[in-house]
């Protein structure tokens, strides 16, 4: 892909290719779930909560048009870029009952995977990518994501549109 190109869905091909499109997407989901739970030995609800907090914590940074170069890799983010998530926000985002979220968040804090933030809510532990050895896991997930993209391109349900 060239700079400015974008990936787009091809609605007119989707209806005739649902199976060819859904298979790589579900396979990606299952591969990601298996990889993540093997790395941290979490059940599905706990993994969902942890991933929700991970995404929620960096949403402010990722909404920037130009993410500062210092923060695109694995550098520990300054706390002003990290958005804590309340247990209520986690419950709303995941669809899990608040009591389930409260219980699992407490367990994740006890395991050292989440911390209470002084501003309220919880965040992932600073430096978790390096300290917990997530780099190889992230590489594995990105490789599977690329395979999924290729499968969707072959199925014709997505395409690369030239920018400009």
UniProtKB/TrEMBL annotation:
<dbReference type="GO" id="GO:0006355">
    <property type="term" value="P:regulation of DNA-templated transcription"/>
</dbReference>
<feature type="domain" description="HTH crp-type">
    <location>
        <begin position="77"/>
        <end position="126"/>
    </location>
</feature>
<dbReference type="InterPro" id="IPR036388">
    <property type="entry name" value="WH-like_DNA-bd_sf"/>
</dbReference>
<dbReference type="InterPro" id="IPR036390">
    <property type="entry name" value="WH_DNA-bd_sf"/>
</dbReference>
<dbReference type="GO" id="GO:0003677">
    <property type="term" value="F:DNA binding"/>
</dbReference>
<dbReference type="InterPro" id="IPR012318">
    <property type="entry name" value="HTH_CRP"/>
</dbReference>
<protein>
    <recommendedName>
        <fullName>HTH crp-type domain-containing protein</fullName>
    </recommendedName>
</protein>
<dbReference type="Pfam" id="PF00325">
    <property type="entry name" value="Crp"/>
</dbReference>
């Amino acid at each position: 892909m060239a700079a400015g190109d974008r990936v787009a869905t091809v609605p007119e091909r989707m209806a005739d290719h649902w199976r060819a499109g859904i298979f790589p997407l579900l396979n990606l989901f299952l591969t990601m779930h298996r990889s993540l739970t093997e790395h941290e030995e979490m059940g599905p609800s706990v993994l969902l909560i942890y991933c929700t907090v991970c995404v929620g914590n960096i949403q402010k940074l990722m909404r920037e048009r130009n993410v500062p170069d210092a923060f695109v890799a694995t550098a520990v983010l300054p706390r002003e870029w990290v958005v804590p998530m309340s247990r209520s926000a986690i419950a709303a985002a995941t669809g899990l009952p608040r009591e389930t979220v409260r219980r699992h968040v407490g367990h994740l804090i006890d395991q050292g995977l989440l911390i209470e933030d002084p501003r309220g809510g919880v965040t992932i532990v600073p430096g978790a990518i390096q300290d917990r050895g997530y780099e190889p896991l992230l590489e594995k997930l990105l490789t599977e994501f690329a395979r999924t993209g290729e499968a969707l391109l072959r199925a014709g349900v997505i395409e690369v549109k030239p920018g400009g």
